[in-house]
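Writing this down once: the sequence line spells out the residues, with the fold written below as integer tokens. This is how one looks:
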Amino acid sequence: SDTPSSAADMTLSVGWLSAVVAGLFSARVLQKLCFPYFWTDVLFLLNVIVYGVKLELSKLTSSVFTVLDRFVQQAERIPDKPFVIYEGRTHTYRDVERRSNRLAHVFLHRVRLKKGDCVAVLMSNEPDFLCVWFGLAKVGCSVAFLNTNIKSKSLLHCFNCCGAKTLIVGSVDCLDGILTTLLEDNIQVWAMKSHSEHTQVHTLLDKIDAASDQPVPAALRAATSLKTPTLYIFTSGTTGLPKAAVITHLQSLKASAGFWAFGGTKDDVVYIPLPLYHSAASLIGIGGTIELGATCVLKKKFSASMFWADCRKHDVTIFQYIGELCRYLCNQPKTELDKVHKVRMGVGNGLRQDVWRDFQSRFGNIKMCEVYGSTEGNLCLMNHTGKTGSVGRSNYFYKLLFKYDLVKYDMEKDEPVKDQHGFCQRVKRGETGLLLSKVSATTPFFGYAGSKQLTEKKLMRNVFVKGDAYFNTGDLMSEDHEGFIYFKDRVGDTFRWKGENVATTEVTEILGLVDFIQEVNVYGVEIPRHEGRAGMAAMIIRAGLTFDGKKLFEHVTRDLPAYARPLFVRIQEVMEMTSTFKQQKFQLVQSGFNPSTICDPLYVLDYQQKSYIPLTDCIYQSILAGECKL
């Protein structure tokens, strides 16, 4: 029988065990109440740290394992796995590997490219875009992705930025009006065609078949530093003509880990409807597919009506988006198949809270993973929790790794608020401020090709102490008391429309070429139920001349891509200026385009009449009601 001593011991043990269980339960309840995202944060940060350590260790070795190396590795490991599905046709990892090898041989022996050359690529979304990109990288060339929407003057400017002397195009038609200038500048043009009507445009397709599909020497693509530029991706930035953002191997590798960090696996099928010349589709989309060893469905162009049919047909599990894309999907007619799909995650940026809620309510509880970061920036925020409306999440540990700050900003003066010592002031939790990211050895800013001045313009120095340097994102953000970060607005000379950044100074320059315009001020205005801001131009008409809507229409449709064309025009007598002699945009943005509250004459872009026509109250109401297609 039990002695009193052993019974007491047992009682003590049970009591101790109960206390431990109660303590653990209390700790769990406390954690859930006070730190609900603790474990999510810990797991996500562990992933980030592990990947970061891998990159840091690779700096110590003489060679760098690049995204292209990872692709070659995957082609050896899973040669028969579908890599790209395009217009119903499947291209395996082996297919793309061999075709890019053939192109690499053509680039070496026929185009006569050398390691270190920069080559510009002007192609639409198609598998050969990837084969050309990889083929060029295999011979050690850096590649400049050109936006297929940009026109003559901007396109010519892009070559001067990155120093490219060779251009590869999918179609010669996109060079209308500038081919002669390119040839005069000794830029050789090669087309992905079998024959060309232009005697000075060389062809590639007829030479690929005769080329070997064996690898070119791996030494050609070998990189000795993570900081070596591998791509140039053009961004409108905040001022002037497109700028060539330098993309190093370091940035490419970080971007390729995006899907993985959000929980992507080799079994995922990724839907990429965004243009490959942008970093989202190329670095995150294609790079992320390669990193996982997954499959992607590549679309030539986004189609709202085909989106869900494609997702069902190909068992898509992850899709890439911009906010506007999700809005288009929500505007499609409802069907009983809306929730019949295998999509579990969306990765992208610019998704408004109202569209976010509508999207999930209609299409199911798809985890929307917002990624915040500019092409050239040194900061990336990721909403790993799926919190509605947030672009990222911060906490004590995250801030140890990524040094960023929100500082007070004066919208009317269009500049940061400084204290008596000339330093910036941090905003309080919950307040809106300008997002700045510290430039350091761990978060370098590589800037733009061809101009130290442009690179320096994006930096702010002596921000909090003498000698410090911060990357100016140009974005106004706020951080709530839980550490969630929200995008509020853009400052300066850029607004976003149709998923593209519009540089107001570039549009201003082009509008300034119209003979009846004396002065013009371009800005973005909000339209209900639309992402971003639509272009509007306030202008002064030259003395003795009159506004000509048809002439302006012809000019903007010829020289500006669709997303950059001002939708509205406001005729003014006097152009307001700031105290620093900059054009005043704040009041213009605030007053919008309402004809009943604005005394100045207003016009709206009308594609049917091929003119800018008077903006009546009737047209204004139809725009607000979403009846007009913009």
User: Anything to note?
Assistant: The mean pLDDT is 88. The CA atoms of residues 167 and 355 lie 40 Å apart. DSSP finds 20 helices and 30 strands in the chain.
